[in-house]
Design goal:
Mean pLDDT: 96
Helix content: 40-55%
Largest sheet: 8 strands, parallel, barrel
CATH topology: TIM Barrel
Strand content: 5-15%
CATH superfamily: Divalent-metal-dependent TIM barrel enzymes
Shape: globular
Number of domains: 1
Number of helices: 13
Oligomer: single chain
Distance between the termini: 46 Å
Radius of gyration: 22 Å
């Protein structure tokens, strides 16, 4: 596993040091972060179109980050990915995710989002990055609870349509040599292992359909996030280190009663303030030789973001496990090559 990194999206603002890429990278480097994950939808960070079309600009962006003391871990297109697939019921809500000229025009908005994703594939290639994170969008989320009863074949039709929408994008990422990692997130059609598997199947097991692992979303769903790593470790190519807690009570549970984040029983917290077993997670990822960046995504209903950022890098560094190159039993012997004759004698076969 690599060194502590941070996703910049939640920290960007109009005041220094959060107002541009150079300033925020220097700020994060001073806190101990070695990598930054860049939101491509924030023009204070990068110009995605220019990043895809100009190798010179891509090199300049890398230089800015490197001179500040960090590396670029990945690019992110959560906003654009969300707009690749939008159920009409959410048109008004998600219109604000698109530039004004594409609002109130779902077809043009979708075309813009798909093009943005293709640009992100080339931009990642220009930066020498091999992973990318996004959302799947949603056609089916409003049918999440099976009442009223769904029409026969509805979900199959939904996954088929979602796969058809994403196939050209996945092919573009394949050409670029970049893995597209979906953040499995409530409100997205890809939100857990089952929905990931159905999408993977619908894309004919496209090799670029991979996973960005974030345990906080699984706490909110009450999914076994440690067993998830056992099942999907070969597809986990990215990691958001984010905490969450689930404190159900006699009035509200997982669905939250339409309450705001502060009052929901299931809510995001700063690292170390929630319920996530990070010792277990880092142990599992070490067991399966995860080689990516552990990236802090700060989202907390209570704590100041600057405090969360300051606490994040040492928290992550403390949990990273450097795997041993030898066994703790080496002192007792038993190593070396196999001796077939000795083994047969010990088993009583000779």
């Amino acid at each position: 596993m690599k060194e502590p990194a941070v996703y910049l999206a939640q920290f960007m603002g109009d005041e220094p040091p959060f107002n541009n890429l150079e300033n925020i990278c220097k700020y994060m480097a001073n806190l101990g972060y070695k990598g930054v994950q860049i939101p491509t939808f924030d023009p204070r960070c990068v110009d995605l179109k220019k990043l895809a079309e100009s190798q010179t600009y891509a090199d300049e962006i890398k230089g800015i980050v490197n001179d500040a003391g960090c590396e670029i871990t990945e690019l992110a297109t959560h906003i654009q990915g969300q707009l690749v697939a939008v159920n009409p019921a959410f048109n008004k809500v998600f219109d604000s995710f698109a530039p004004p000229e594409y609002q109130n025009n779902p077809e043009a908005r979708t075309e813009w989002a798909v093009n943005q994703m293709k640009l992100a594939a080339q931009a990642s290639k220009n930066l020498g990055i091999t992973e990318h994170v996004t959302f799947s969008g949603n056609y089916m989320w409003h049918t999440m609870y099976p009442f009223p009863p769904r029409p026969a074949g509805l979900i199959d039709t939904g996954f088929k349509a979602l796969a058809e929408q994403w196939k050209p994008i996945l092919d573009a990422f394949d050409v670029a040599g970049v893995d597209l990692c979906f953040e499995l997130h409530p409100c997205e059609d890809l939100h857990d292992g089952v929905t990931y598997e159905r999408f993977l199947e619908a894309t004919n097991n496209h090799p670029r359909v991979n996973i960005m692992y974030d345990p906080s979303h699984f706490v909110l769903q009450q999914l076994n996030y440690l067993e998830f790593i056992d099942i999907y470790h070969e597809k986990i190519k990215m990691f958001h280190v984010k905490d969450a807690e689930f404190k159900p009570n006699g009035r509200s549970g997982m669905y939250g009663g339409y309450q705001d984040w502060v009052n929901r029983p299931a809510r995001f917290r700063s690292l170390g303030d929630g319920d996530v077993d990070f010792k277990g997670i880092f142990s599992k990822l070490a067991q399966y030789d995860f080689e990516g960046w552990p990236v802090l995504e700060w989202e907390c209903a209570l704590k100041n973001p600057e405090d969360g950022a300051a606490e994040g890098a040492p928290f992550i560094a403390k949990h990273i496990i450097r795997k041993s190159e030898k066994s703790f039993e080496d002192f007792a012997g038993g190593g070396g090559g196999a001796d077939e004759k000795l083994n047969r004698r010990m088993l009583g076969l000779e």
